[in-house]
Amino acid sequence: MAHEAKIQAPAAGRLRACSWIRVSTKEQAENGRAGLDRQREAIERVVAGKGYQLVDSVELVDVSGTAVLHAPETIALLERIARREIDVIVASEMSRIIRPDDLSTFSFLEACKRNGVILDCGGTLHDFASPEGYLAGGIQALLGGHERMQMLRKMMASKEKRRANGKHPGSWITLPLGIGYDRKKDKYIFTPELGRIIEAFRLMDEDRIRSLAEVGRRANIHPASVRTLLSNPVYKGVRVYDKMADPTRKIEKAHGRQGYRPKIARPKERVIRVRIFEAEDQPVSDERWERVQRILESTLRNHEVFVSERVVGNLATGVAHCGFCGLRMYAKTLLKTRADGSRSRGYYICRSHHETMTNRPGNFRCAQSWNRKEVIDELFTEFVEKFLADPEFTSSVLRQARAKQGEKIVSISVGEPIQAKLDELAKRDERILAALEAGALAIGEAKQRRERIAEERATLLKSIGGSSHPGRAVEQESGPWSLLEDRGKWMASASVRERKAFIARLFSEIYLRGDSVSAFRLAPTLVASNDPVWGFAATFPVALDPPFRLPSGDPSAAELPAGHRFCRGCNQAKPESGFYDPKRSRCKECSREACRQRHRKSRGK
User: Fold this and answer.
1) Peptide bond preceding 524: is omega within 30 degrees of 0, i.e. cis?
2) Mean per-residue pLDDT of the chain
3) Which of these, 144, 146, 115, 145, lies nearest to 128 by C-alpha position?
């Protein structure tokens, strides 16, 4: 039977309390698990013992302690706290409220402090408005976050050990088709679905079927999964772990529920290859597996040639961001014939305009319009060529941005303090040598002290980019020119894929405002973020003033008078009052004419 909190009507003279119950996973909330019941019993004892009046109850299931602020239940509670309708939040312990992994999580505690709400964790009061409560409660919250980090570290280390020993540390859902795991025997096993995989290998190797869709149809495998399954070396008895969960990112589901961490490639030294089936037990022989891999490579090459001849591709996806709100730009394919007979390739749109975001709570559509693909692709091409072919343009933009960066951020001269520290280390080294010559210091101890000085000196030099002269390192006129001289590769890049790869080596982000490039951020491969001179260009967006536009041959890129906009219907500059809506690209006359044409067409005239 579901537990119902005994909510009471407010009464004068008693503290109004809200109970707080949280479990991190759905499994912890299932029947037979003591997580929820234990917390409820502890809260009921505290409420009854201290005479609180329970006016609200928050119960979070499948919500991590690091994501409580994203849950709608927490947002509703914060609104009640802001209206001063809650005096006490009662929880079994502080870790049930938050387990911070970054300082932004403490905003919940700040809201409690600002509105005079006390936290009662297992009978211990934490009043964050008092120095003692601020210290004790803050330490307990940090300890909860530290405990979570320790648990994650131990869990990940244990999983890595099991992987290296040929064991399976995860759920059955992470196993490939046809492969299972026996927890009692602690070994990999085959499942009945393995026959479908063996049949797929046979169809490609013996029957020489090259269509992956046909192989999937005959072997009863989804066509989209055929290539991935047949490329997995687990079917020749070897488990390979070449990807890992990104420890720096976490994708949360709606309402702050538990999500997942995206996969990234493992460093070479952390790739694990372990044999889980003996050679006589492996489902597919090594020879057949290698032959199928060669077939898959040839089909992929043929597909790329076929696609490159028929599909243009999207040059801007991956690096394009909205210059209004900063969100990523997406490609929208709408193949239709325009009035002049030309075919539309589609549009680039801001993520805030995407259909998956329009109905989300809190989403708002920015001022970015739908930009035609052919215009933005041409804009990208012109911008990259200008960036590569005109060193004066690139140099002036970066130097101007560097000057502005110095105006916005308080300039701290690191050269003099670091040079002073280096001079002090040199003096300490001289004193050690003098003491050694005088016999006041043993050789072994002198060696250890000089090694420590050398380590400190190396650390200081590394913090300023490795130069032995820090004052000059800040003033040096070197720049991110290593790839800018490689313009020939860009000109020789024929396909969209090659050009996208080249752009990714230059830029990590390019910001669009309408049909113009308003800012960019250099890629870490072009300039290191710790570069003392140009590292800011890889850390912060570099604004273009004025924004980069297409040459004046495009009428829409021409300089417009103040208070005017360009109409794409009549290709003329019109006053802003001549448009129905700021987001429309056609003036009132063109919009009315288009409406009349649709009306005549619908009536068959």
Assistant:
1) no
2) 79
3) 115
What pLDDT is attached to residue 287? 93
> Based on C-alpha coordinates, what's the Rg of the chain?
32
- At residue 395, the pLDDT reads 74
Pair of tokens at residue 143:
């300890």
CB atoms < 10 A from the CB of 546, how many?
Answer: 8
Beta-sheet strand order (sheet of 88-91): 53-61, 16-23, 88-91, 118-121, 124-126
The answer to whether 583 and 514 are in contact (CB under 8 A) is: no
Q: Give whole-number Cα distances, 392 to 213, 387, 398, 400, in Å.
A: 53, 9, 10, 12
pTM exceeding 0.85: no
Confidence of residue 219 (pLDDT cuts 50, 70, 90): very high
For the chain, give the number of residues: 605
How far apart CA 478 and CA 256 sit, in angstroms, is 46
CB 212 within 8 A of CB 201: no
Give CA–CA dist 383/516, Å, rounded: 10
Distance CA 416, CA 499 (A): 44
Residues 6+ apart with CB under 8 A from 57: 5, 7, 18, 19, 21
Q: How far is CA 246 from CA 76, 243, 255, 266, 556, in A?
A: 31, 9, 22, 9, 43
Does residue 537 surpass a pLDDT of 60? yes
Given a contact cutoff of 8 angstroms between Cβ atoms, the answer to whether 179 and 229 are in contact is no
Cα gap 93→114, rounded to integer Å? 21
Q: Is the pLDDT of residue 3 over 50?
A: no
Share of the chain above pLDDT 70, in %: 78
475 confidence band (pLDDT: 50, 70, 90): very low
